[in-house]
Amino acid sequence: MSKNRINISMPSLTDAKIRRKLGVETIKYELDPKYKDLGKGKTYYIFTYGCQGNEADSEVMAGILESIGYTKSDDPFMSDLVLLNTCCIRENAEVRIWGVLGQLKGRRKNNPDMLVGICGCMPQEESATKKIIESYDVDIIFGTHNRHNLPKLIYQAYFTKAKVVEVLSNEGNILEGAPKVRELKHKAWVNIMYGCDEFCTYCIVPYTRGKERSRAKEDIINEVKELVKEGYTEVTLLGQNVNAYGKDLGLDYTFGDLLYDLDKTGIKRIRYTTSHPRDLDLKTMEAMRDCRSVMPQLHLPVQSGDNDILKIMNRKYTHEEYMAKVNKLRELVPDISLTTDIIVGFPGETEEQFERTLELVKEANFEGAYTFIFSPREGTPAFKMKDDTPESVKHDRLERLIALVNEGYLRGNERFLGQEVEVLVDGESKNGEGMMCGYSRHLKLTHFKSNDLSLIGKLVKVKITEVKTWFMIGDLVED
Ligand code: 5AD
Ligand code: SF4
Q1: Are 437 and 426 in contact (CB under 8 A)?
Q2: How many angstroms separate the Cα of 10 from the Cα of each of 5, 143, 285, 424?
Q3: What value does the mean pLDDT take over residues 104-113?
Q4: What does pTM read for this prediction?
Q5: Over 70: is that where the pLDDT of 260 sits?
Q6: How far apart are CA 243 and CA 134, in angstroms?
């Protein structure tokens, strides 16, 4: 607004589309000593929206902030630095963020020295960054490729009192060695790759997150070994398309190989997300069968069950090919729990095409799904596609789909009734006094009677006595 602006760099969707063959830069994090006490005596708060990738990025930003003296605050509106780590995958994700920015505007009156920063995916969009600069009282704007510059950006904002904008629309880099403050002590996110080269026509991610780039396997394996030493029980391997792991490195080493190697680290539980059905290969399925640490659960987004829609979405597989992978998986890991993502109301989707999705949901026997109405994202091919399906029809489809998906959730829990399951305990349950909860190997939320807080982070056995759509209830089995 009236503030000066240091325009270090602005986003460009045109640049963000470019994929070159050039090698990816690995940045070894080093703190410039001049920033070492920048946050001394000051507090910070990070709001995190969107996917697990953002949660992992926030842990890195928290690590960087604490390394320069900041301490975490409980009250976002009274802290010295507030960061909003944003998501722009669908319009409603952005709407929430505009709301929080609005709230911050008012609160800033009580705390005029507060610095407000916005980062993550939203600033990577040209139109969003323009709107933030023009209409909101934000001091620092940066994107997904430069969180390692956070101390520099804070420094500039403090000492120039100007609005600092640094959004890079390049293909991204790999950040190694940055400090992290992990949210939990028993479950950890481990990035194995960044970016996406799939370019599904509805999706903004390839533009906001840059090109597919894999971390070196040694760095990943060492991180997991460290986590084992620190007492972690579970890791979730993260990437937009983890099944493409290693392709960019040009080595004869794939995601399946990585699973076999990580199994040897001694970590008790390995999960991974997200998978692209086209890249899910036999070796990965075999690793799921062979490695006890790889959990019998998979999130495998299908998006639609109709071949024409899948084609226009640029998903590069058919209904039949998807089902062939599901059937192979079930052959190798018979008790696997499958979940998925589905978009309804993609431009031009007919009733018949939607019914093909319902058929696939039944055939695949999903035990859960995230369901979305198509949301046009500026800069993506689908944004310009003719979309004449009335909103009411889209909502009706979504409701029918959710009803079917919910039957799957319940069926998925019912199969454990009367059985003993292994649960990694997360903490006290919100489901009632004297109850604790955690997740089973199949990623089923499980509640059990106990108030023994020393169980947090431990693996326990629970005998399931009751199931609902969203969770299971059982009794702790003493050894
Ligand atoms: N509209 C609706 N849903 C979308 N997703 C991605 N882009 C869009 C969009 N433009 C969904 C997909 C993806 C999940 C993370 O979000 O289902 O798998
Ligand atoms: Fe988006 Fe498709 Fe990449 Fe997933 S695979 S992040 S839906 S472009």
Answers
A1: yes
A2: 12, 10, 42, 44
A3: 80
A4: 0.96
A5: yes
A6: 40
Q: Using CA atoms, how far apart are residues 174 and 438, in angstroms rounded to an integer?
A: 32
Ligand nearest to the CA of 379: 1
Q: What are phi and psi of 321, to 5 degrees?
A: -65, -40
Query: CA-to-CA distance for 86 and 397, rounded, in angstroms?
Result: 29
- Residues shown for the chain: 479
Give the sign of the dihedral formed by CA 18, CA 199, CA 147, CA 139: positive
User: With a 6 A CB cut-off, is 437 part of the ligand 1 pocket?
Assistant: no
Query: What are the pLDDT digits (tens) for 176-216?
Result: 999 999 999 999 999 999 999 999 999 999 999 999 999 99
Residue with tokens 């990437």: 239
Ligand 2 mean position, distance from CA 279 (Å):
12
d(CA 198, CA 409): 29
Verify whether ligand 2 is closer than 6 Å to residue 205 (CB atom): yes
Q: How confident is the model at residue 299 (pLDDT cuts 50, 70, 90)?
A: very high
Whether 206 is in the pocket of ligand 2, judged by its Cβ within 6 Å, is yes
Instruction: Indicate if ligand 1 lies below 6 Å from the C-beta of 378.
Output: no
